[in-house]
Amino acid sequence: MSDMEKTNLTDVVKTEYLNPGNAVFKAEKGFISLEYTADGEKKTYSRVFLHRCFPNEITDGYISVLDSENNEAGIIKSLNDFPEDVKALLETELKRRYFVFTIKKIRSVKEKYGYSYWTVDEEKGEREFTVQDTYRSINKITDDRIVVTDIDGNRYEIPSLSALDRKSQKRIEIFL
Amino acid sequence: MKKAILTPDRKKKRLLSQLPHENAEGDIITVFTFDMGDDGEHVNGAVLITEKQILVYVNNAETALFTVAGCEKFEYRQLVGACELTAKDGDGEHIICRASNTYHDVLAKNARRLNGLKETGKYRKDEELELYRVCPKCGRELKGGLKVCVKCADKKSMFARLFKMALPYKWYVIASVILFFAGFGLSLLGPYVNKQLIDGYIQNEAAGAAVSSGDNSVLFGFLFTVLLMLLLYIGSAAINSLRNLAVMQAGTGLIVDLRKLVFDKIQKMSVKTITRRTSGELMRRVTGDTSMIENFVVGQMPNIIQQAILLVAVSVILFIYDPFLAFLILVPVPLCLGLLQFANAYFRTIYARQWEAEARSGSVLYDIFSGIRVVKAYRTEKKEFDRYDKAASEERDIAIKNETVFNVIDPVIMFVLNIGSLFLMYYTGSRILGRTMTLGDAAMFSSYVALIYGPIDWLSYLPRLLTRAVTSVVKVFDIIDEKQDIQDAGDAKEFEIHGDIEVNDLTFGYDEGTDVLKHVNLKIKNGDMVGIVGRSGVGKSTLINLIMRMYDPDGGSVKIDGVDLRDISQQCLRSQIGVVLQETFLFKGTIFDNIAYAKPGCDIETVIAASKAAGAHKFIINLPDGYDTVIGENGHTLSGGERQRISIARALLHDPKILILDEATASLDTETEKNIQDTLQKLTKDRTTIAIAHRLSTLRNAAFLVVLDKGTVAETGTHDELMRKKGIYYDLVMAQRQMSKIKK
Fold it and tell me: B95, A29: Cβ pair inside 8 Å?
């Protein structure tokens, strides 16, 4: 096969990438709307949903923008491509979808009959939650960053284990 | 401090008193809180729902008002870390509230309730308890998302029930108790006889003189005491083994009963309940947890009682004999117990970690072996080796660390205990030298000390054993107590099914709030062959799951011959429905056994006829072992198409009144499929057949077709009618024609 005939996967499968030049995001009734122009054709979406392609690894890029029928309008390669006000708007929407509590301190973890009962300090203050099947509910994203999922499906992130105080570290250590 | 119990009513009242709702129209249905604002930050929000309005409050101030009449539809949406409740009207979608996942069931249930209110003008007032997240038993607020209040999970009754289950084995239990006390008496007697031996003969100068002067009676006395010692040993050994036997009988019997109970219960559970748990978890409940209980009841419980009584009895004897000495002996005991308690807390966690590490490296292995063909195809052996190596090294490191810790702590404990013996030795030694104590007394004391230190060392493990046993007991009863969500009604009917199926306004979702099927209506006459088509994920398989009553509908009903499925006994229903799924399941056994699975004892001719009808006969007789070929795990490997044909044969042999084919011929080539189809058509004349297929040619014999789209019936009709309609079905057919053209 010569180089001429060689086709790239990305040439065959077209993905629309959104940037400030072709996409206008607006806040509307507590949601986000999109006006997207491609090949001179303008499409309007009254409500779009933002799904991160890599929720753990890349939080500010590769964001799939879907309409209410779950069809992809396009992908945002990087939030930083957009001006600050649009970026803030998109970030709020992402925050609402990927809502996560950030653990500042672990006050106590008690294990009993297959459940563990946690008392932690998050940004808004003290919070209690229950975790079922503790070992499997703790997702080690890196050696230092973990996410705990509670019985309701709420997520609690520890952005950096090593940044926690010594006592908190000890309390969670046994589950890692 | 006694906390006021927050009942649903009180919680509701308190909420209402805070919210200004004088202007709200209509009766109040419910009020609930939520916790997220439009900017994704925490707020104190509340929603008040009346028969006419939906009022939204943030910090007790009204922020939005919707009228039920003005909205078209309410929607609950599960996001990743949060959820939302929205209302749709002519103007599009509006947010009612957002919340963290803690409120997911509250929002989902209210979405459903609002839609019901909208459509029927009625609303359900039940499930109030769950909505307010209070314990159904004591009314305390459920913290941290628990479904049952921790305080109400009655642990005492667990053991009481375990005890009740032991009743059939009461004679063994009584025997073991009697034998236990007999053995106990003997073990206390030992040191005393020993003392007699030493003081009466060995250390007795008069006795020594008598023997050397030829006094045989003393020698006989000596021999008799030795013999008594021997008898004591034999006796206690015999009694102990008898006791163990009795305990074993009772314990193993009890465990087998328990295991049967758990297994039976799991089999009776609905698919919904079962799929919520992994098969590994269920296996662990049936085998692991019951073994843990067995181990505890048979192995540990007798020991616990024995050691505890021994400890008390020996302490009492020692105190009576010589209080000061007893005091010396018992000095290191509290220290030891404290040390052990500390060590235990540590051991518990490090062993749990070891267990997890072992499980991890085990699952890495399982993963690699089950995907060995992919590993070989992509030549990634080295990568997989490294992955296993990493998991195994981790396991090794943890194990080494644990063993090191254990080997450091254990000698320390032994040392502390030995300090006690040192005291004893010094004290008894000086008293023997001072002639205030005999050597026999000293020996007896040493024996009793050994008897006391044994249980102390052992009792230290008790908390850990107890925790593990209790955990298992709770888990096992958790399964046994699970509410059966699909149950036969008290007056469940049994009758011969004719085959008319009627689906009325059927609504169902696997998860709260996301309906897979919405208001499906369908009528299938006896003897019809109906094809269900539609894109992936529109709810085709869900619909037949509901017809088979693998799940109960959330709304509407499925009727067979005019009788609601919930009023037909499950045995009656399933014995007359045959099903072939795309994912075939063959049990370990011969091909014959697999085909005859639903009809054991069936004659050979029928089995051959069934496999011929399913197009399986030809390949079966070409196997070296024919119908005797062992298939299933570790057995002969069949191709996907071969497996499907065996499943079809199984279903045909079952001779069902209703036959369900869910992509049953998807793995077959079109030629074979056509042959089977033709046979099926002859066979299915007087039975109702429901077939799902993506390959539309599969359904060419269907009397009519049902096209599902987004969980509702989009089109129905014959092939020709639907083609003329040029709707979804037409598009599907055209797309497939296009495909086959490309292939050609």
Answer: yes
Distances (CA, A) of B623 to B311, B593, B610, B611, B631: 69, 16, 18, 14, 12
Q: By CA distance, what is A136's nearest residue in B?
A: B356
B186 found inside a domain: yes
HSE (side-chain half, CA atoms, 13 Å) at B386:
3
Question: Which residues lie closer than 8 Å to B727 by C-beta, 6 or more apart?
Answer: B707, B714, B715
pLDDT given at position B141: 58
Query: CB-based contacts of B97: which residues, under 8 Å, 6+ apart?
Result: B34, B36, B45, B47, B56, B84, B85, B107
Domain end (from B481, B501, B528): B481
Q: What is the pTM of this model?
A: 0.68
- Say yes or no for a CB contact (<8 Å) between B94 and A30: yes
* 3-class secondary structure, B155: helix
Alpha helices in B289-380 (DSSP H): 290-294, 301-321, 323-330, 332-370, 372-377
Is residue B700 pLDDT above 70, yes or no? yes
Could you write out the three-class secondary structure of B486-532? CCCCCCCECCCCCCCEEEEEEEECCECCECCEEEEEEEECCCCEEEE
- For B468-487, how does the pLDDT look when each residue is reduced to its tens digit (9 = 90+)? 677 677 777 777 776 666 77
Question: What is the pLDDT averaged over residues A27-53?
Answer: 89
| pLDDT of B354 over the 60 cut | yes
Domain with B697, as residue range(s), is: 491-576+693-744
- Letter string b/e over residues B495-513, b meaning 16 or more CB atoms within 10 A of that residue's CB: eebbbbbbbbebbbbeebb
Least confident window among B244-248, B353-357, B440-444, B458-462: B458-462
- The residue among B82, B116, B151 that closes a domain is B151
Q: How far is CA A157 from CA A77, A170, A172, in A?
A: 24, 17, 13
- Test the B interface: residue of A69, A93, A152 with most B CBs within 10 Å: A152
* Together in a domain, B417 and B512: no
Residue pLDDT, tens place only, B423-448: 778 888 888 888 777 888 878 777 87
Pairing label, strands B704-709, B529-533: parallel
Instruction: Tell whether A167 is within 8 A of chain B (Cβ).
Output: no
Mutate to test the interface with A, among B36, B77, B79, B154 (most CBs of A within 10 A): B79
- ipTM surpasses cut 0.90: no
The residue in chain A having the minimum alpha-carbon distance to the alpha carbon of residue B394 is A176
Interface A-B: count of C-beta contacts within 8 A? 93
Task: Give the up-direction half-sphere exposure of residue B637: CA atoms within 13 A in the CB hemisphere.
Answer: 0
Same domain, B348 and B465: yes
Residue B600 in any domain: the answer is: no
The first and second tokens of residue B639, run together, are 């191709």
Q: Measured between CB atoms, which of B98, B353, B475 is closest to A96?
A: B98
What are the residue ranges spanned by the domains of chain A? 9-97, 101-173
User: Is B385 in the same domain as B240?
Assistant: yes
The Cα B130–Cα B103 span in angstroms is 11
